[in-house]
Amino acid sequence: MAIDKLQELQEQRNTLAAEIKTLGDSQDSWTDEQRARWDDVNAEYDGVLESQQAEKQKLDVSARLESISEERDKSEWQARRNDEAQPITDDTKSKALVAWCRHQSGQDVTDDLHAAAKRCGVKVDNVFLEIDYRQTVKYNANGFGGEFRAQSTTDAAGGYTIPEGFSNELEKALLAFGGPRRVSRILRTASGNDIPWPTVNDTSNKGAILAENTQVSEQDVVYGSVTLNAYKYSSKLIRVSAELMQDSAFNLGAEIGSMIGERIGRITAEHFTTGTGSSQPEGIVTGSTLGVTAASTTAITMDELIDLLASVDPAYQDSSSAGFMMHNSVKSAVRKLKDSNNQYLWQPGLTSDAPDMLLGKPVVVNQEMASSIAAAAKTVLFGDFSKFLIRDAGGVKLARMDERYRDYDQTGFVAFSRHDSVLLDAGTNPIKHLIQAAS
Question: What percent of the residues of the chain are helix, what percent strand, and what percent coil, each to the nearest 5?
Answer without folding.
Answer: 40, 20, 35
